[in-house]
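User: What would this chain look like folded?
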Amino acid sequence: HVISANGTQNVDDKWGSDAPDATFMQFNQIEGQTTNALHVRQVLRGKRTGLLYVVRWPKSTKDLRAGLAAFDYTYDTLRIIHRYKRMAMYEAVMGKLNLEIDDDMKFSNGITAVFYAILNGARSVIITGIDPQSSGHVYNNSNLKRLHAGTDGQILQTLIARGYPLFTADIDVSNRIG
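Assistant: Here's the prediction, encoded as structure tokens.
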């Protein structure tokens, strides 16, 4: 199965995939006006996914559907992951609570996708595009700082140390994270 986060599904075309099986998208990507949100909507315009999880959406489902329709992003199934569900996923995999009170505790939607795969019994999880040491995103050239880079790196190292079947397609990440 292919799982994407935010605008990363723009690389699916290179893999010959019509659409990811699941996508995790941060709430701000739907209506936000940040550089990153604008780029996400641009690369996802007219695309689709199977199961769409919108993380921490603060409004009604009707507003969410309208926001997605505004950039012609479609899905087979739509779900919202509230803060407590994301915290529960973290706790189930990591064995401790993470309240995500500040940027130092927050983790990326890519890591949320890794937790999802593990919790759904994936025999192996192969990541690409999650590089805690990088800046920027694969779907734009704005080179924006990753606010959750330190937390993502710590989580990946912990998962590897605990023997989770985690692999990467990125040589640099493999060398840095182990």
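Residues 47 and 73 are 5 Å apart (CA to CA). If you want, I can go into more detail on any region.
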